[in-house]
Amino acid sequence: MMRVGIAMLQGARHEHYQAIKLASMEMQQEVEVVELRKSEQVDSSIDGLILPGGESTTMRIASLSESLLEGLFDWMTQYPDRPVLGTCAGAILLAQPTQGRERFINLDIARNAWGRQKFSFEAGVEVTLETPEQSTNVEIELTRDKFNHKPLPMGNDAINSESEQFPGVFIRAPRFIQDSIKCQPVAHLSQEVVGVLQGEKLALTFHPELTGDRRFHRWLIGRIMDSKQ
Ligand code: GLN
């Protein structure tokens, strides 16, 4: 049984929880999802890690009492072969860990570089990363939340059902400084690199957990499966 840890610092944690669960169903794999809140939990039993998006400064502050971030960085240093998916603020943490630590992805990143919240957007992203196919189709019903709000039906259909593009949701997103990138580009928005892979670290400036396309979550599970063989 695989164990995937989600850093429960702040931000889009619960959406990642659901996305990885659904991805495991799509791949017919048993995955235990561990909500990481204390650094002691980030131990050798964690096979892969998700660093969600949100607000990286708030995450750093939220981490102070339990030093979760330091535990996550230690784990990533100790197990460089275990896969990590860092999205948006999670990508910022990979590129700019705490001072004095070597960065996990070799590039410079600019926070909030598309402008303010109202300049958030959704756009088709070209993906060149190889990701596992889904072996079964998992449809979820979009139910109303406790406020009686209906969720947006985001996913491939919302963008362009004819294309293979990924529905990129960019919320006050950072941007990779293009000429600083010294790792493998795996996702583009027009000409701009918005996703990179360095070893087993996958960093995206957008939010894949807010869509119905779970290929990046399947990637994480696929990498764990390969490493366990
Ligand atoms: N603006 C956030 C930051 O700088 C990142 C945005 C996000 O994760 N959606 O931390």
Can you tell me about this structure?
There is one protein chain. The protein is α/β, with parallel strands linked by helices and 229 residues long. The chain has a single domain, classed as 3-Layer(aba) Sandwich (Rossmann fold), CATH 3.40.50. 25% of the residues lie in helices and 23% in strands. It contains 6 helices and 11 strands. It has helices at 13-26, 56-62, 68-78, 89-95, 156-159, 215-228; strands at residues 2-7, 31-36, 48-51, 84-87, 109-110, 121-127, 166-170, 175-176, 184-189, 192-198, 201-204. The chain has a 9-stranded mixed β-sheet with strand order 2-1-3-4-11-10-9-6-7, with helices on both faces. The chain has a two-stranded antiparallel sheet with strand order 5-8. Helix 1 packs across helix 6 (215-228). The longest helix has 14 residues, at 13-26. It is globular and about 45 Å long. Glutamine binds at residues 53-56, 88-89, 92, 111-112, 171-174.
Helix proportion range = 10-25%
The low-confidence parts are: 156-162
The helix tally amounts to 6
Largest sheet features: 9 strands, mixed
CA distance, first residue to last residue: 12 Å
Ligands bound to this protein structure: glutamine
What proportion strand?
A: 15-25%
Cα gyration radius (Å): 17 Å
Number of domains: 1
Could you spell the SSE succession in H and E letters? EHEEHHEHEEHEEEEEH
CATH topology assignment: Rossmann fold
**What sort of overall outline do the alpha carbons produce when their principal axes are compared?**
globular
Mean pLDDT: 91
What CATH architecture do you see? 3-Layer(aba) Sandwich
